[in-house]
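glycine dehydrogenase (aminomethyl-transferring)
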Amino acid sequence: MNNQGRATRAETNSASDAPTFTGNKALQIEEALSFEFGDFAGTGVDMPAPIGDVDRLGGLNRNSDIGLPGLSEPETMRHFVRLSQKNYAIDMGPFPLGSCTMKHNPRLNEKVARLPGFADLHPLAPESAVQGALELIDQLAFWLKELTGMPAVAMSPKAGAHGELCGMMAIKAALEARGEDKTRVRVLAPESSHGTNPATAVQCGFKVETIPADATGRVDLAALKEKLGPDVAGIMVTNPNTCGLFERDIRAIADAVHEAGGYFYCDGANFNAIAGKVRPGDLGVDAMHINLHKTFSTPHGGGGPGSGPTVLSDALAPFAPVPYVVQEDGKYSLVESRRAAKDEGDGHESLGRLTAFHGQMGMFVRALAYMLSHGKDGVRQAAEDAVLNANYVLARLKSEMTPAFEGYCMHEALFDDRFLKDTGVETIDFAKAMIDEGYHPMTMYFPLVVHGAMLIEPTESESKRELDQFCDALLSLAKRAKSGDVASFKAAPVYAPRRRLDETAAARKPVLRWTPEEPAKAAE
């Protein structure tokens, strides 16, 4: 036993491999597919045969079995609980995925989102019955504009990529209004951009040209200026960028693009690192989406849909999509179409409608609850703590692991695989070994501009105790890799329910449908 009373890996390894009759290992319960043990002939509910012969199905009666297994209620509950225990969750431990912001979901926000009047809203309810909801949307929009220093915000985009589409469509509409939509066809994007950036630009009919990074991992300003010309529609830059670094030349980038007649789209996926500290509007940004589900509650993967409101500058505000909330004489209403906007004399150049309804109401409630419970100073402190935690991880790990770039980082620490050179251990092996230590691996092989990238985002949620244990585990793995313990890395994960999977085969030949086994043929 070690000095904390826990068995070491070597002491427990032989016991973990001991077979059991059920396949269970104490609280790790083996669980088959419901299709494999369910009863296709019955269900968990006894329904009496219908009385009478009146058929109201209009000839649409089912003429074959439904093909789903029948389970009792206890079987159903146990099945999904057992499956949930095989998955990692933010409520179990740190979730170090870089670029994803897997932080704690404040339970207050979840409680508020479930209040009657918010949770049971219907998108077709009359405006008179949803005045409180419209006021909430309007108040959230106000604070988003305050935090970003932007005059307008489109609330309807459903997630980050949708928000990007909104911003780039606004730029397209502005160019059309200027009569330059046929001549300004190029959009510049750094080589470390999120993959959705060039995809969104292409979706809007632009051609994408990449900008190289300099030695510090930031946009090469000189290379950018060389690519500017009368055919440039704009630029898409993430700040802080995908390498976890603040673009120090951000204002110079904006000025250069504006001088060339283009617009500046900022990917706001990492706004959680600067919220309350920096207003993008002051940096020359024309459009920026905000991932509410990363910055202001229900982080990515945390149990709900996304939301990507997009803030717009004075130059792009006239082209904001409908619908949007207006308030007059204490009454809130939605402007639902460009015709209505034109009649009101505001927003008559709107790019139109992006989605069927106004947005993700549950996310709006959570985000505003997050803002109001934190306050201005709390939102700023959350950003500061996220940056502090990332730099603490960077400082703790750089003795054994290799940071991708020199200097401080923002909200995420980026490492490369140079520390594994000549060890025989690959980046993927290191990730699998983390699973045995009880941690979800960090983001691996991204961003692509760094070889063997390992991107760690601890977020502001983690205490020093949790971070120290996480760092100690990674330092231990790095030392083991350098000591020549290659076999254990190649076998990892040993303690996961399904051990190591063939990920290449799973990606290229996925089995997405269960089919019953063919009965064995009797010997002739």
